[in-house]
Write a structure and sequence with these properties.
The chain is an alpha+beta fold. The chain has 3 helices and 4 strands, in the order βαββαβα. The chain is globular. The termini are far apart. This is ACT domain-containing protein.
Length: about 100
């Protein structure tokens, strides 16, 4: 539905299943993960962080629909899920 690359940022208290949760949402909607990096920040409570680049060119849903799905999942789980179009992400992170 969309030919856009997106960047998904994930932040939450570390626990099993966070990667699977996000990957399942993307797989269910035919969104391909092209790159993924994650780490756990150890400063008291371990915080899981992940950034993904995904391709929506064969997606069954629009970018806005994906953002709504991620927002609902964020409310259910307490894990912060942010999706940005790649060009917006690059613009916001220019030095």
């Amino acid at each position: 539905m969309s030919d856009e690359k997106i960047v998904i940022t994930v932040v939450g208290v570390d626990r099993p299943g966070i990667v699977a949760m996000v990957a399942n949402i993307l797989a269910e909607n035919n969104i391909n993960i092209e790159d993924m990096r994650s780490t756990i920040l150890q400063s008291g409570i371990p915080v899981f962080t992940m950034i993904m680049i995904a391709d929506m060119s064969k997606s069954k849903i629009s970018y806005d629909e994906l953002k709504n799905i991620l927002k609902k999942k964020e409310e259910e789980t307490g894990v912060k899920l942010i999706a940005l179009k790649e060009e917006i992400f690059k613009f916001l992170h220019r030095v």
